[in-house]
Amino acid sequence: xxxxxxxxxxxxxxxxxxxxxxxxxxxxxxxxxxxxxxxxxxxxxxxxxxxxxxxxxxxxxxxxxxxxxxxxxxxxxxxxxxxxxxxxxxxxxxxxxxxxxx
Length: 102
Prior knowledge:
The chain has no helices and seven strands. It has about 100 residues and is mainly beta. Strands 4-3-6-7 form a four-stranded antiparallel β-sheet, with no helix packed on it. The protein has a three-stranded antiparallel β-sheet with strand order 1-2-5, with no helix packed on it. A hairpin with a 2-residue loop joins strand 1 (about 5-10) and strand 2. It is elongated.
């Protein structure tokens, strides 16, 4: 399993600002290692963010997204909202982390 994501959520005026740093190597499948062999593709394919059990963001990533992707978005919410972030990569690995809006 990969390293935990850093998830921060802060509410101001009824808007929750969510910042997510995902730890993932995000290989495109086009780079070569020192011996000249192609490094296989390995990247996050889908991401889902829920607030209090309700979807607030669904997304699809591809091989062009950089290593350790950072995502920032806003939604209408409140302090205390439970934010759950989940992703799945093209090898079937999964990660889920949580935060509470402050």
